[in-house]
Design a protein that fits this description.
The chain has no helices and 18 strands. The chain is mainly beta. The strands form 7 sheets. Strands 5-6-8 form a 3-stranded antiparallel beta sheet, with no helix packed on it. It has a 3-stranded antiparallel beta sheet with strand order 7-9-10, with no helix packed on it. A hairpin with a 2-residue loop joins strand 2 and strand 3.
């Protein structure tokens, strides 16, 4: 019949025929409600890039009465077929809200769920999100070279492709998910999942969505034929045009069965 969140102090005395002993040492405790597992993470979304999928989610509204200690991510190749073993080798941090699954196979659709953890155990699974990794490697004009781009924006040039710079040494707000070469192959743009655009060589900057609040992350980009503009495309099919790139429509207002993964 005690009150939760109130501290109580106790002593004990022994009794015999002659009376009571002196008081024991004092001990105290604060009753609290019984903790449960956390609520379910919400808003899980997945964005495919080259052999990788970027996941983002919103933490549970309730921690179950005990602090969240981490998150586990589960993956499968069929809907509802996620493994019972987390893809992350150890729980993610208590404040984690993103995860990049690596080493995936391009053109294969992967399905993910996330669970929150506290001292009691794991939450139920989040909503399921899926994405299909795809190769977005830009090539030189004559097809005799190409650039490979890491999620940190590190750029590796091969064949007759020249190196013009990278974001590898920068601290990015979001990972790089797309790259575009200029028409003459003497420059390129790198694009983050927040729509931040980084231009190198003879690539000019025409704008970005980096300062906008997007409904879904950017997953693809395409330059105009003359290289004087580009389109950024989100996983919900929202299209953002810059420079001389014209807007022709989008699926941003539609309910899609699966997320958008590319633009052509």
């Amino acid at each position: 019949g005690l009150t939760n969140a109130t501290t109580y102090y106790f002593t004990v005395e022994a009794i015999n025929a002659n009376g009571s002993s002196g008081a024991s040492n004092e001990a105290s405790a604060t009753p609290s409600a019984t903790s449960t597992t956390p609520g379910v993470p919400t808003g899980l979304s997945a964005t495919g890039t080259n052999t990788q999928v970027l996941l983002t989610w919103t933490p549970p509204a309730s921690n179950g009465g005990s602090a969240i200690t981490g998150y586990n991510v589960y993956v499968g190749t069929t809907t509802g077929g996620e493994s019972t073993t987390p893809v992350n080798t150890s729980p993610l941090g208590a404040t984690a809200a993103t995860y990049t699954a690596t080493g995936l196979t391009n053109a294969t659709t992967y399905y993910f769920t996330v669970e929150a953890i506290n001292v009691v155990g794991s939450s139920g699974a989040s909503n399921e999100a899926s994405a299909t990794p795809a190769n977005t490697t830009p090539a030189t004009l004559d097809g005799k070279g190409y650039w490979l781009v890491g999620s940190d924006g590190g750029v590796f040039s091969f064949g007759d492709a020249n190196y013009y710079g990278s974001t590898g040494a920068m601290t990015l707000n979001k990972p790089i998910v797309a790259a575009m070469a200029t028409p003459d192959g003497k420059g390129y743009w790198l694009v983050g999942s927040d729509g931040g655009v980084f231009s190198f060589g003879d690539a000019n900057y025409y704008g970005s969505t980096g300062a906008m609040t997007l409904n879904k992350p950017i997953v693809a980009a395409m330059a105009t034929p003359d290289g004087k503009g580009y389109w950024l495309v989100a996983s919900d099919g929202g299209v953002f045009s810059f420079g001389d790139a014209s807007y022709y429509g989008s699926t941003g207002a539609m309910t899609l069965n699966k997320p958008i993964v590319g633009v052509a």
